Amino acid sequence: MIALVAVLVLSAPVVFAADLSSVDALYWRRDQGRNLDTHIEALEAMLKASPFDAELTWRWGRAVVRRAERRTHKDTRLADFLRAEDALKRAVVLNPNSVDAHFYYGVAMGRRGEAQGVMKSVFLLKPIKKEMHEVLRLDPKYGGAHRVLGEIFWQVPGLAGGDKRKALSEFEAAVVFSPHTTTNYLPLAEAYLKFDMKEKALATLHRVLAEKNPEDPAAAPRDLADAQKLLDSILH
């Protein structure tokens, strides 16, 4: 009996990891069919058994952010962003050392801000930056956090803390640390163009268009289409 219990205990994490890996695979192919919905449903089933699991919680929040991005009705989008934000805030509490929980919590707040409108969302800038700085404290090479900080520095007026030079530096860091994340390249190319660095912008666009192993296969087609559109506009 003792031996049987030992086998079950030792094998449980392996089974759980295999299940989570399968669920993650749905997320990376969320652009296909009902994969995103199935991914969310699978996470919800797992959370019923483990409601205080930070890994499951931040994944659910991330997925709901992606679902919200697809919504066409503003109120429905906003409601989903708020649900995701609540879950990701809970994930941060459950595991303060989770870089992904902090990152997607900041992303959810940003998306909520976009849905509400700029005038209603200025107060979110400080907590979003706080989450990104926490991500980089835990992992200085987390490219996504550098990109988000770059977007804030780029979009916010100088009097409110914006700084396009700092933004460019953050965009460059995002590509250096996460070279297979296609989403990082367009902001960098656009920034180079604003600073009249056409050759660097072209090199950046050619680099992403040559990407054969994107970190996020579901986001890559849109990112590459946007990159190609910008490249065409430069060359013609």
Q: Per the principal axes of the C-alpha atoms, what is the gross shape?
A: globular
Structural class: mainly alpha
Q: Helix count?
A: 11
Question: Which band does the percent of strand residues land in?
Answer: under 5%
Number of strands: 0
What percent of residues adopt helix (DSSP H or I)? over 70%
Instruction: Provide the low-confidence segments as ranges.
Output: 1-17
Q: How far apart, in Å, are the first and last alpha carbons?
A: 74 Å
Largest sheet: none
Mean pLDDT across residues:
91
Rg computed from alpha carbons, rounded to a whole number of angstroms: 20 Å
Order of helices and strands: HHHHHHHHHHH
Describe this structure in words.
α2 (about 35-50) runs antiparallel to α3 (about 55-70). The chain has eleven helices and no strands. Helix content is about 75%, strand content about 0%. The chain has helices at about 1-30, 35-50, 55-70, 75-95, 100-115, 125-140, 145-155, 165-175, 185-195, 200-210, 220-235. About 35% of the residues are buried. The protein is mostly helical and about 240 residues long. Residues about 1-15 have low confidence and may be disordered. It is globular, with a radius of gyration of 20 Å.
How does the SSE layout of this entry go?
Elements: H1 2-28, H2 35-49, H3 54-70, H4 74-94, H5 99-116, H6 125-138, H7 143-155, H8 164-177, H9 185-194, H10 198-209, H11 220-235
Helix pairs in contact: 1-2, 2-3, 3-4, 3-5, 4-5, 5-6, 6-7, 7-8, 8-9, 9-10, 10-11
For the structure shown, list the relevant keywords.
mainly alpha; 236 residues; single chain
